[in-house]
Automatic annotation (TrEMBL):
<protein>
    <recommendedName>
        <fullName>Molybdopterin molybdenumtransferase</fullName>
        <ecNumber>2.10.1.1</ecNumber>
    </recommendedName>
</protein>
<keyword id="KW-0500">Molybdenum</keyword>
<dbReference type="GO" id="GO:0006777">
    <property type="term" value="P:Mo-molybdopterin cofactor biosynthetic process"/>
</dbReference>
<keyword id="KW-0808">Transferase</keyword>
<dbReference type="InterPro" id="IPR036425">
    <property type="entry name" value="MoaB/Mog-like_dom_sf"/>
</dbReference>
<keyword id="KW-0479">Metal-binding</keyword>
<dbReference type="InterPro" id="IPR001453">
    <property type="entry name" value="MoaB/Mog_dom"/>
</dbReference>
<dbReference type="InterPro" id="IPR038987">
    <property type="entry name" value="MoeA-like"/>
</dbReference>
<keyword id="KW-0501">Molybdenum cofactor biosynthesis</keyword>
<dbReference type="InterPro" id="IPR005111">
    <property type="entry name" value="MoeA_C_domain_IV"/>
</dbReference>
<dbReference type="GO" id="GO:0061599">
    <property type="term" value="F:molybdopterin molybdotransferase activity"/>
</dbReference>
<comment type="pathway">
    <text>Cofactor biosynthesis; molybdopterin biosynthesis.</text>
</comment>
<dbReference type="GO" id="GO:0046872">
    <property type="term" value="F:metal ion binding"/>
</dbReference>
<dbReference type="Pfam" id="PF03454">
    <property type="entry name" value="MoeA_C"/>
</dbReference>
<feature type="domain" description="MoaB/Mog">
    <location>
        <begin position="183"/>
        <end position="320"/>
    </location>
</feature>
<dbReference type="Pfam" id="PF00994">
    <property type="entry name" value="MoCF_biosynth"/>
</dbReference>
<comment type="function">
    <text>Catalyzes the insertion of molybdate into adenylated molybdopterin with the concomitant release of AMP.</text>
</comment>
């Protein structure tokens, strides 16, 4: 008999995730700039102004016209001061210079700036080195952005630098995709809250913190629902409630073949199943469905399965719901130890990244197997992707890696 009861390849599951997400793309909303961090942009941005918006000095010093330099040192007459913040409209005459600070508008007629450390002032005469380059220390209007440039694109994630670019263009709000509201369920009679006393056969609920942390790392604000017992009626009521109120329901546990695994049946009866079970390890019993208004992602209960399914298909789902079109960076690294995989599923192996002496990225697979071994995940910062089928990888081979924390 087959080791796994599914024929669905990981890439086919990913294609279904993408298609379901795009069919349920969340609406956009206009937000004040300060609230746009981490959001997915839902508009194109064309620059309404140039950046810099005027010629200005890159340093504190003296602005002058380069044609006035002759010989080893030149002496120019100090004709005024132009500080940042208030354009005085100064015009430089021949043989003149102006004291200037960083960011101050360049007086008309000036084309170069010498830093104050290289100039000396005596009375109203400034001596400066004759070899100062033409255009030195001047930031030209439009050299970074020209009016009309297409600087930000719909589907990009708003990093601090992108929000800051919008601010520098004077934009006070942006159209962004609404973030999915997310309900998180952990399930199982065996679970107790850390701090309480487990009865024989019980364990502490660790997946809730894992999931809440993973979701928050994506900028989501998940709601942790009270833990669900292995009672079909209670599972049904809670999930159907959440289906009316949230964009996304994430459960963990109760999705494989056990007598107490009720979630697939609830979905089959009251919603729609998009797929159930994927040829991946860990994470094989993963379930994707729709229940009322919500998408439901049923993650397997084993902690490392939660991590692997979230980082691979869970993130793809929330990216798609928000219309993120910018792909996440694909990372590759060299193995520091061989990997010998004999099973047919795509595998995600816990691992640690490190910088090699030659500048290449190295990745050390963790020897622990078993999707219950959370400690190996805590000792890791990435997953190695080992594609379907038997794979014999040698030390030094290049593999794809999924860092836990970058996007
Ligand atoms: N006959 C079969 N048995 C199993 C199959 C299968 O296909 N046929 N799949 C196995 C695989 S692979 C996985 S993964 C697990 C997934 O099972 P479930 O998603 O139904 O999860 P549970 O059975 O409820 O729990 C699995 C495991 O994880 C522990 N767990 C659950 N929730 C938490 C939590 N919040 N914090 C910490 N640990 C949790 C739970 O106690 C179990 O040990 O099924 C295999 N079996
Ligand atoms: O596929 Mo399960 O997630 O390995 O233990």
């Amino acid at each position: 008999m087959s080791e796994f009861p599914t024929g669905l390849l990981f890439d086919d599951a990913l294609a279904i995730v993408t298609q379901v997400a795009s069919a349920h793309r969340l609406a956009s909303e206009s937000l004040a700039l300060g609230r746009c961090h981490g959001r997915v942009l839902a508009q194109d941005v064309h620059a309404p102004i140039a950046l810099p918006s005027f010629d200005n000095s890159a340093m504190d010093g003296f602005a002058f016209r380069h044609a006035d330099l002759q010989g080893e040192r030149a002496t120019l007459r100090l004709a005024g001061e132009q500080f940042a913040g208030n354009a005085l409209g100064l015009v430089l005459g021949i043989g003149e210079c102006v004291r200037i600070t960083t960011g101050a508008p360049l007086p008309a007629g000036a084309d170069s700036v010498v830093i104050k450390e290289n100039a000396s002032l005596s009375g109203d005469l400034v001596s400066l080195p004759g070899d100062t380059a033409a255009g030195a220390n001047v930031r030209r209007a439009g050299e970074d952005v020209r009016v009309g440039d297409h600087v930000l694109r719909s589907g990009q994630r708003l990093t601090p630098a992108r929000v800051s670019l919008a601010a520098s263009l004077g934009l006070s709000s942006l159209q962004v995709s609404r973030r999915p509201t997310v309900a998180v369920f952990t399930t199982g009679d065996e679970l107790v809250e850390p701090g309480m006393t487990p009865q024989p056969g019980q364990i502490f609920d660790s997946n809730r913190e894992l999931l809440m942390g993973l979701l928050r790392a994506e900028g989501l604000e998940p709601t942790a629902w009270p833990r669900l017992p292995d009672d079909p009626r209670q599972v049904e009521i809670a999930l159907r409630d959440a289906g009316c109120a949230f964009d996304l329901i994430i459960t963990c546990g109760g999705v494989s073949a056990g007598e107490k695994d009720h979630i697939p049946a609830v979905l089959a009866q009251f919603g729609q199943t998009h797929f159930w079970k994927v040829r991946m390890k860990p994470g094989m019993p993963l379930l994707l469905g729709s229940l009322d208004q919500a998408r439901l992602l049923g993650l397997p209960g084993n902690p490392v399965s939660v991590l692997a399914t979230w980082l691979t298909l869970g993130r793809a789902l929330v990216d798609g719901l928000q219309g993120r079109s910018e792909p996440r960076t694909v990372w590759r690294a060299r193995l520091t130890a061989p990997i010998d995989k004999t099973h047919p599923r795509r595998e995600f192996i816990r691992a640690r990244l490190q910088a090699g002496d030659d500048g290449s990225l190295l990745v050390e697979p963790n020897a622990a197997t078993g999707s219950h071994r959370l400690r190996a995940a805590a000792d890791s910062d990435a997953l190695i992707v080992v594609v379907e089928g038997p794979q014999r990888l040698a030390q030094g081979d290049v593999v794809q890696v999924l860092p836990f924390a970058v996007g």
